[in-house]
Structure prediction request, 209 residues.
Amino acid sequence: MSEQLQEDLSKVIAELEKKCKEHPNSVMAFHHLGLVYMKAGRIDEAIKALETAIEIDDLSCESMINLGAIYFGRGNLEKARKLNENAVKVQPENAQAHTNLGLIYQQSNELDKAIASYEKALQCDPKLANIWMNLTSVLTMKGEDERAEKAARKGLELDPDSSLGHNNLAVALYFNGKYSEAKEHLDKAKELGYSVDPKFAASLAEKLG
Prediction:
């Protein structure tokens, strides 16, 4: 972080801390303070600020989501899960909360729950290319190769220059026996800077003879 950015963040934090003292029941003041603390790397203080926002208003969905992201980053999946579940109760159409639950379930190897959460996120917003890619990965892990291919194609349709998207589609095509097309997408993934698994590349080359 540059010195200038540190200085700017310090000024914003000082202003928000003052605002929180002046308005101790302001959800938005504590929420924004938590976000700026996060940006400044002051994570423990971010947790306290976001927890305060939720204490003031237990329907503060965005505070729950951001606090959940901190706990997910720290590996506390249980706290992250509960926060995002509460966020979904508050805002059932919040795609980010469903996405976060998908990531948590995927990390916990609860693949069916991860798929269900990603699908709910896509029901809320079907144009989220990254969620189609997440869904592709989980479907591949489950061996649902045809569904994985469809999800991968949808993700690439929304984001044609995604290196991850091309790699995911290459993997799905490989498991569906479409080796030539898989090679095309693997080459594209490399071209776009994706670090391709050499074992997968070698296995695909072997299939192509």
